[in-house]
């Protein structure tokens, strides 16, 4: 049985992302790098490892959702974001993906 390649997101990846996107919120950049890693090879490796246990992995990447978090920044001022999706709509879409055995829910899948 072949193994999926492992993907490691290191501090160097985060530093490169910071250099490529100067002037934006640092933690959002860091999060973007980690999400990209999880959506790529890491997600594939995890899905492969868990498959034999009957555990399904859904890669859900909803767009901005109105959880209230955007109005409570960890530092500085709150980011200017367009109105996001309602949390109930996001949850309903993820549950539909579970029922329909979907594996990938990019932001466009949330309507």
Give a description of the structure.
By secondary structure, this protein is mainly alpha-helical. The protein has 2 domains: about 1-55, no CATH class; about 60-110, no CATH class. Helix content is about 45%, strand content about 5%. The chain contains 3 helices and 2 strands, in the order ααβαβ. It has helices at about 10-20, 25-50, 85-100; strands at about 60, 105. The protein has a two-stranded parallel ribbon with strand order 1-2. Helix 1 packs across helix 2. The longest helix has 26 residues, at about 25-50. The protein is globular and about 45 Å long.
Sum this structure up briefly:
This protein has 111 residues and is mainly alpha-helical.
Descriptors for this entry?
4% strand, mainly alpha, 2 domains, 111 residues, two-stranded parallel ribbon
Secondary structure tally, helices: 3
Distance between the termini: 38 Å
Radius of gyration over alpha carbons?
16 Å
Strand content: under 5%
Secondary-structure-based class equals mainly alpha
Topology:
Blueprint: H1 11-20, H2 26-51, E1 59-60, H3 87-99, E2 104-105
Parallel strand pairs: 1-2
């Amino acid at each position: 049985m072949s193994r999926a390649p492992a993907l490691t997101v290191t501090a160097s990846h985060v530093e490169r992302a910071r250099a490529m996107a100067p002037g934006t919120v640092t933690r959002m950049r860091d999060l973007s790098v980690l999400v990209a890693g999880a959506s790529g090879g890491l997600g594939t490796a995890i899905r492969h490892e868990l498959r034999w246990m009957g555990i399904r992995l859904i890669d859900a990447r909803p767009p901005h959702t109105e959880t209230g978090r955007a109005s409570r920044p960890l530092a500085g001022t709150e980011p200017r974001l367009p109105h996001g999706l309602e949390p109930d709509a996001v949850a309903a879409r993820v549950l539909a993906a579970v029922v329909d055995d979907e594996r990938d829910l990019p932001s466009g899948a949330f309507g």
